[in-house]
Design a protein that fits this description.
270 residues; 15 helices; mainly alpha; two-stranded antiparallel ribbon; single chain
Length: 270
């Protein structure tokens, strides 16, 4: 004779059974690596902020000093000749800030209405840097740790005010306007890489880029849904023209396409 099972025990068994059948869909391995990288970069931001600072480079130009920010911005431009805006997708602290804000407001942004704002900020800023450097008699010495004597950017309590203002700007814009709104509007680093990418394309140099096979596309629009920069990736695939100044080569469209219609390539553009 089989032992009886109480109603309470029966419910518990059902709960266990349901849990055993739950399938948790993991994001692709490449995206896990990317998200881990941007998170680590963000966690190190209190150390590195001055080397990405729009103010430190101004102070350096005023005093004729080649500093960490100037070196980093030059390296961003040079890297974009071969890697496009991969920095923005893979190692930018702002990427982690955007990832944190995305669950709060996952709305697509209208890049055509917003992308010009960063140029309105960048052009006067870079002009001021050039003017100050000329006025000081040019760059006369190198001090990578200018204004960062300890090597750590946040080495005094008052500097954390600037740190939290930067975070509030990037996270706040994303929370209010949608995906990576800060990247579209206030990022002072993106123009360096956009210009490098333009130079690369102008000369037809091989570089990291996306390529598409329109014949493999089923027009499911998952690439549009997954794009953190709110690009019309589907149309780009259909025309097999994957070039866009706002593409950050994060690979979300590559890894999210079941038909493999998009892939990375290191090649010259068409």
């Amino acid at each position: 004779m089989k032992p009886s099972v109480s109603h309470e025990n029966s419910q518990s068994l059902n709960v266990v059974h349901k849990k055993e059948n739950i399938t948790v869909r993991q994001i692709p391995a490449r995206q896990r690596i990317r998200k881990a990288l941007v998170l680590l970069v963000f966690l190190s931001f209190p150390v590195t902020m001055n080397y990405l600072s729009p103010y430190v480079i101004i102070d350096g130009a005023m005093n004729g000093i080649v500093n960490g920010s100037l070196v980093m911005f030059v390296l961003m431009f040079i890297s974009s000749l071969a890697l496009g805006r991969a920095w923005c997708g893979w190692v930018c602290p702002g990427a982690a800030m955007a990832d944190m804000a995305e669950p709060i407001n996952n709305r697509l942004v209208n890049g055509r209405k917003m992308d010009w704002i960063k140029w309105l900020i960048w052009l006067p800023w870079i002009s001021l840097i050039v003017w100050l450097a000329i006025r000081s008699g040019g760059y006369q010495r190198v001090d990578f740790f200018h204004l960062t004597n300890s090597g750590v950017s946040m080495d005094s309590p008052e500097k954390f005010l600037i740190y939290y203002i930067v975070i509030a700007l990037f996270v706040g814009l994303a929370m209010i306007f949608g995906r990576r709104a800060g990247c579209h509007t206030i990022c002072w680093m993106a123009p360096f890489m956009i210009l490098g990418r333009w130079v690369r394309n102008r000369f037809g140099w091989p570089s990291l880029r996306l390529v598409a096979d329109a014949s493999a596309c089923t027009d499911c629009n998952l690439c549009n849904k997954n794009c953190p920069m709110s690009l019309d990736v589907s149309t780009m695939v259909q025309t097999e023209k994957m070039e866009d100044a706002e593409c950050i080569l994060c690979g979300n469209c590559v890894d999210g396409c079941a038909k493999k219609a998009i892939r990375y390539s290191f090649s010259a553009g068409k």
